[in-house]
Design brief:
The complex is a heterodimer of chains A (336) and B (114).
Chain A: H1 3-7, E1 12-18, H2 22-33, E2 38-42, H3 68-81, E3 85-88, E4 93-99, E5 102-108, E6 113-121, E7 125-127, E8 143-144, H4 147-150, E9 158-162, H5 166-175, E10 181-185, H6 195-203, E11 207-210, E12 213-219, E13 226-231, E14 236-241, E15 244-247, E16 251-253, E17 262-264, E18 270-273, E19 295-297, H7 309-331
Helix pairs in contact in A: 2-3, 2-7, 5-6
Chain B: E1 7-8, H1 12-21, E2 24-30, H2 37-46, E3 54-59, H3 66-69, E4 82-87, E5 90-96, H4 101-111
Parallel strand pairs in B: 1-3, 2-3
Antiparallel strand pairs in B: 2-4, 4-5
Classes of the chains: A alpha/beta (336), B alpha/beta (114).
Chain lengths: 336, 114
């Protein structure tokens, strides 16, 4: 036990990781192997985007692809082997206080508080809602954000998919296993998805694409019956009949609890805050350090140009190493 | 079997007994998917706060799940999980797809207030 730990009567983790997706779990594997006391707070009300993915084809080492669920399960087992503790709770707040001159982070969940020298935010992102009439009301009655979960309900049915990125393309292709016909609606005149996915989309006879159009309303009373949409170029409104609407229009970061995090100086005045970008993503440098000393961010919740399992894992490793250096410097045990 | 800490309903006999012996029952019927797991997690958390409600999960793919799938209340459901609230053996509310803690608490407080 270091002097720092002896001087602090409360139990203090070396690192608390918030989030159990690929980045958080990778960070946990690394910090646990570095023999840092690691607690991973697994969100109660959200789950990793990777879980929604039927098959991950671009993670090296899996030439046949691997299911998102299986991959996360393997990551979790690996973190547990090295000693990561898991608690299932949503984080509501992070505060800091000084004890014996050292900054301690207090991470609050509903009825408990955990303490740590450092925090890694790996809280991920969740599906973005389209925000149109009918969407909330018809959730689970034809409206879905998860093809893997709900695709089988649409056997021989007509489906509309909204979006143009990798997720929309992948999920559209997955849904062709079930659907009679799929109409992919995109607001622009070309897809943003990876070329190989675009090729598969264009080659599939079950898929029609409606370009330059936005959905204004999802139609139906007790179940989805269609969508109304506007062609942005022709300025023309039309309707498409369908039994299901799958929405993949991007992500929103799970960073609400981060907004008020403030690090205080020795006199109790606000010193640092965690900077977020205009969309709520945490701003962190290439070593995953945020604007707040002792707090690191990685994965989908971080401002970045690419959000993939492989990049999330890389982020997680960097965040873990940065947290390790930070904690060892605090304790005076850093390798110099 | 679902990998949760909830009690599992796996047979017709279990369901019959559950509905016969408990006034308030919540059954979440799903798979281990991203829309279902958060609902199981919330149920696990709320179990101790709602001791007067029996909360169980059920694998969507086992034969007995047809009891839930074929309920009139679930006839338009096309999103996992199917969550059904029973009072005195009768379905009094049902939801399809993911629900957050607030939504679940809202239903529990409304349908099981007595």
């Amino acid at each position: 036990m270091t002097k720092l730990e002896k001087d602090n009567p409360i139990f203090i983790y070396d690192v608390i990781i918030i989030g159990a997706g690929p980045s958080g779990l990778t960070a946990a594997i690394y910090t646990s192997r570095a023999r840092l006391k690691t607690l991973l707070l697994e969100g109660l009300s959200v789950s990793s985007q990777a879980l929604v993915t039927d098959k991950i084809e671009n993670y090296p080492g899996f030439p046949e692809g691997i299911g998102g669920f299986e991959m996360i399960d393997r990551f979790k087992k690996q973190a547990k082997i090295f000693g990561t503790e898991f608690v299932q709770e949503d984080v509501s707040d992070i505060q800091s206080f000084k004890q014996q001159g050292v900054n301690i982070w207090q991470v609050e969940v509903k009825e408990k508080r955990f303490y740590s020298f450092s925090v890694i935010i790996a809280s991920g992102a969740q599906f973005k809602m389209l925000g149109v009439e009918g969407e909330k009301r018809l959730l689970g009655k034809g409206v879905s954000y998860c093809a893997v979960c709900d695709g089988a309900f649409f056997k021989d049915k007509d489906i509309v998919v909204i979006g143009g990125g990798d997720t929309a393309a992948e999920e559209t292709l997955f849904l062709t296993r079930f659907a009679r016909k799929i109409t992919l609606i995109h607001r622009r005149d070309r897809l943003r998805a990876t070329r190989i996915l675009q090729e598969r989309i264009f080659a599939n006879k079950k898929i029609d694409i409606v370009w330059d159009s936005v959905v204004d309303e999802i139609l139906g009373e007790t179940k989805v019956q269609g969508v109304s949409l506007t062609d942005l170029k022709a300025k023309k409104e039309t309707e498409i009949s369908c039994d299901g609407v799958f929405i993949f229009v991007g992500l929103v970061p799970n960073t609400n609890f981060v907004k008020d995090v403030i690090k205080l100086d020795e006199n109790g005045f606000a010193k640092d805050v965690i900077k977020l970008d205009e969309n709520g993503y945490v701003i962190a440098d290439s070593n995953m350090k945020t604007s707040c000393d002792g707090i690191f961010a990685c994965g989908d919740c971080r401002q970045t140009i690419l959000r993939q399992v492989v990049t999330a894992c890389g982020d997680g490793a960097f965040a873990a190493f940065s947290a390790q250096q930070y904690v060892e410097n605090l304790k005076g045990t850093a390798y110099k | 079997m679902l990998d949760t800490n909830l009690n599992h309903a796996e047979s017709h006999e279990q369901i019959d007994e559950l509905l016969k012996n408990n006034t308030n029952v919540m059954v979440c019927c799903g798979r281990m998917g991203p829309m279902c797991i958060p609902v199981y997690n919330i149920m696990e958390k709320l179990e101790s706060e709602y001791p007067h409600v029996r909360m169980v999960d059920m694998d969507f793919d086992i034969p007995v799940a047809s009891l839930i799938r074929n309920l009139p209340e679930c006839s338009y459901f096309m999103g996992l999980p199917f969550t059904v609230y029973f009072k005195n053996g009768k379905a009094v509310n049902a939801t399809s797809s993911i629900q957050n803690e607030e939504q679940i608490i809202g239903i529990l407080d409304e349908v099981f207030k007595d």
